[in-house]
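Input record, target 12 of the design panel.
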């Protein structure tokens, strides 16, 4: 019996296997990472605006005058917003793609975690340099602890993505190819028999 192709013209593949518990937990952690990054973005904007209004904005250990800070404010705010939104978008994109079992997303998540680790190490080395300003409790929490928390969340998510149960979910190519071949083989045979009968 003839079975038509779906409207897209492609044969329907087998349904993807359900995501295992480690992948579901990793996806939840990635959404949590997006929330932490949102808090980090907001706090960064508060510190930029508050520091310049108070007249003790600091760049590379140098305290800026009020005039210098007011000229630099739009640039710093723009850079903070753009970079913060990019980080949040990456968390959400990786959560969605990994939840769908995309193997490239698992690899890209690992690469992004490595880059975030290198960035945090470089920021920590700059923070170790002597500074003229007093670091308050809020600056310590949002400037140092929140980024470390985001890194810990990323580490846990990447670890879960590479668990054996997750690997089976991310590499169903053999399952897909076998299902695709099983779907095509009876149709190829039936179409060839129809052509033979016509001849």
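The sequence produced for target 12 reads:
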């Amino acid at each position: 019996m003839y079975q038509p192709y779906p409207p897209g013209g492609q044969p329907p593949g087998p349904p993807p296997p359900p995501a295992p518990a480690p992948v579901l937990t990793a996806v939840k952690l990635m959404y949590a990472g997006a929330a932490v990054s949102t808090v980090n973005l907001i706090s960064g904007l508060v510190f930029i605006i508050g520091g310049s209004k108070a007249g003790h904005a600091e760049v590379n250990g140098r305290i800026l005058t009020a005039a210098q800070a007011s000229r630099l404010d739009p640039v710093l705010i723009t850079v903070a917003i753009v970079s913060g939104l990019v980080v949040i978008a990456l968390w959400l994109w990786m959560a969605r793609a990994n939840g769908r079992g995309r193997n490239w997303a698992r690899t890209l998540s690992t690469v992004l975690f490595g880059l975030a680790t290198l960035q945090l190490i470089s920021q920590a080395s700059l923070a170790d340099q002597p500074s003229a300003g007093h670091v308050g409790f809020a600056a310590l929490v949002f400037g140092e602890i929140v980024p470390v928390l985001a890194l810990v969340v990323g580490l846990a998510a990447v670890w879960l993505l590479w668990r054996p149960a997750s690997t089976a979910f991310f590499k169903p190519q053999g399952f897909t190819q076998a299902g695709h071949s099983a779907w095509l083989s009876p149709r190829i045979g039936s179409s060839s028999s129809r052509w033979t009968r016509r001849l």
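The longest strand covers residues 58-59.
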